[in-house]
Design a protein that fits this description.
The complex is a heterodimer of chains A (266) and B (274).
Chain A: H1 2-24, H2 26-52, H3 62-96, H4 99-103, H5 109-115, H6 123-141, H7 147-173, H8 182-191, H9 204-213, H10 216-227, H11 233-260
Helix pairs in contact in A: 2-3, 2-6, 3-6, 3-7, 3-10, 7-10, 7-11
Chain B: H1 2-22, H2 25-51, H3 65-82, H4 86-96, H5 101-104, H6 109-142, H7 149-174, H8 184-197, H9 209-215, H10 225-231, H11 237-266
Helix pairs in contact in B: 1-6, 2-3, 2-6, 3-6, 3-10, 4-7, 6-7, 7-10, 7-11
The chains are: A mainly alpha (266), B mainly alpha (274).
């Protein structure tokens, strides 16, 4: 508990330093927000199209699909704000020997390497866009989700965030073994977009693949399915357990990878 | 004699960039694979949307199902064909003071960049065309896509103009680095806007008639939407001529604007770190 509190305090300091650094270059900060607005538009186009065609996709109405998209946008805010930049920097830090300094700090090296950067510009449009999209589709659907559904939704958003961390960190850990990993990480990053639409649009084998083998569908689909009371108990348990299992698996992989670190570039 | 000398100089730049890019063939293939994920999402989406329509052969936004599938698959390929990337090199040249060499080298910056870019694209684009051709054949047998050989030839003939519009547009934009220390956000954001408005994700018809009417006078749709509309057989002969004329006009506009913008930008250049 003491360790957790210490790391939370350190994280607060990381966030403080990052916001100060980012606001020093205000033009870049504002342009970053503008660029992310364009990415947000690419996500919302999907909602626009299902509304334009008034399509029922996989038994879901356009407003129900929009609720999935809104949740995906919210999770994108968490991913881009907390993890994305850290992951991008891993190959550079490993290759350049910057990891040396992190190894001697009195905090977890994994925590330092993967949580050091907090981005404030990219999540802003996603938080605003995500909240508005979820709120509008929620009210249009006239959802009267009870306390249990809402708590489950939030719990699954949190577990989805933990799962995001674990799934998308693994490809970057390859940089401990290979010099150039961009091709692999690019492919892995694009998998994130599979959550842009509800998994019901995909066929059965792809759904199973995305739930059990590489559980990307668990991230943004399960919270909304819980809201619709459409999440089987087994899936609910899977959605809560698999993030924990993968988190500890990633920790093991990380520890193993660090043992291989030779500080060649340091 | 002088012309021959100039041509020889640019042929050397072209060849050098082409050879340099050949080393990264795998990177390009991997980028096609990752781009393929977006196509998979869309394939499932459009299959579900068309499948849910009451009429058997529904036409949405001017496209039958097979045409839509061809469009989204080819849009992913076309987006790779026209993709630039030199704007980031220019940004780093300006930031690091590496523009200095262009003051002493007997070559103009714009011609050096554009010729080098075209050289770098040769191998990539040949691979893209081969993969695109294979995919077209697959689509004939899987979704019953129909093509006119002539349309494909016309689209291939105008594709270099699409590539040039995009290249000139990003060359123009890259001068922004004279004012911004870190132009990454501008290039990234503009790249996404261009992809959307050029029809790189969905055909621009989905945005409605008003937007399509406005886009007719802007450069974007002539980058991806226009050549692909020829491939799927949705462009009349008059539209083809109008489109090619617009492509040429926009290339000239961006060339002129680039000259002006770069001249102003160079006055800001301080060769920091150079």
């Amino acid at each position: 508990m003491k360790e957790i509190r210490k790391h939370l305090r350190v994280y607060k300091q990381f966030a403080k330093i990052c916001i100060m650094q980012q606001l020093e270059y205000r033009a870049n900060f504002i342009i970053g927000i503008g660029a992310e607005c364009a990415w947000l538009a690419t996500k919302l186009i999907y909602s626009f199209i299902v509304h334009q065609t008034n399509s029922t996709v996989g038994g879901l109405s356009p407003d129900e699909i929009t609720l999935f998209i809104g949740t995906f946008i919210l999770l994108t805010a968490l991913y881009t704000g907390m993890f994305m930049m850290n992951f991008f920097f891993i190959p550079h830090r490993v290759r350049g020997g910057e990891l040396d300094l992190m190894l001697v700090k009195p905090i977890s090296t994994q925590f330092h390497l993967t949580m050091r950067e907090v981005d404030f510009a990219i999540p802003i449009p996603n938080i605003i866009g995500g909240v508005i999209t979820v709120a509008v589709s929620w009210s249009r659907l006239g959802l009267e989700a009870g306390f249990v559904q809402i708590v489950t939704y939030i719990c699954l958003i949190i577990s989805g965030t933990v799962l995001t961390y674990s799934i998308f960190l693994i490809p970057y850990l390859l940089s401990f073994w290979a010099v150039k990993v961009q091709a692999v990480t690019d492919v892995a990053d694009r998998m994130w977009d599979f959550n842009n639409m509800p998994m019901q649009i995909y066929n059965n084998w792809l759904q199973r693949l995305g739930i059990f083998l590489i559980p990307v569908f668990v991230i943004a689909n399960f919270p909304v399915m819980a809201l619709f009371e459409n999440l089987p108990l087994f899936y609910l348990l899977w959605g809560l357990i698999i993030p924990v299992v993968l988190f500890f698996a990633v920790k093991k992989i990380f520890d193993f990878a660090v043992k291989r670190y030779s500080s060649a570039g340091g | 004699m002088k012309i021959m000398k100039v041509l020889k100089k640019y042929a050397a730049i072209f060849k050098l960039e082409m050879q340099a890019k050949m080393e990264y063939r795998m990177d390009f293939l991997m980028s096609l694979i990752s781009g393929g994920f977006t196509v998979i999402i869309q394939l499932f989406l459009w299959t579900a949307i068309y499948g849910g329509q009451a009429e058997e052969e529904a036409v949405l936004f001017g496209y039958e199902y097979s045409q839509m599938v061809v469009y989204i698959v080819m849009a992913a390929i076309m987006a790779r064909i026209v993709a630039t990337g030199f704007e980031y090199d220019i940004m780093s040249d300006i930031m690091e003071g590496n523009m200095n060499r262009f003051f002493v080298q007997p070559v103009g910056h714009m011609s050096y960049r554009i010729v080098g870019f075209l050289g770098a694209k040769v191998v990539e684009n040949l691979m893209a065309i081969i993969i695109g051709s294979v995919l077209l054949i697959v689509l004939v047998f899987t979704v019953g896509a129909e093509f006119s050989f002539l349309n494909i030839l016309v689209a291939l003939a105008i594709a270099p103009l699409s590539l040039l519009i995009n290249a000139m547009m990003f060359y123009f934009l890259s001068a922004t680095s004279f004012w911004l220390t870190w132009g990454w956000g501008v290039f990234n954001g503009w790249g996404v806007v261009t992809t959307i408005l050029s029809g790189g994700i969905f055909p621009i018809g989905v945005f409605g008639e008003t937007i399509v009417g406005i886009l007719r006078f802007l450069p974007f749709q002539y980058i991806i939407y226009f050549p692909l509309n020829i491939v799927v057989g949705n462009a009349t002969r008059a539209q083809v001529f109008e489109g090619v004329a617009m492509q040429l006009v926009w290339i000239l506009i961006f060339m002129g604007l680039s000259k002006l913008y770069w001249r102003v930008g160079m006055k800001k250049y301080i060769a920091a770190r150079g």
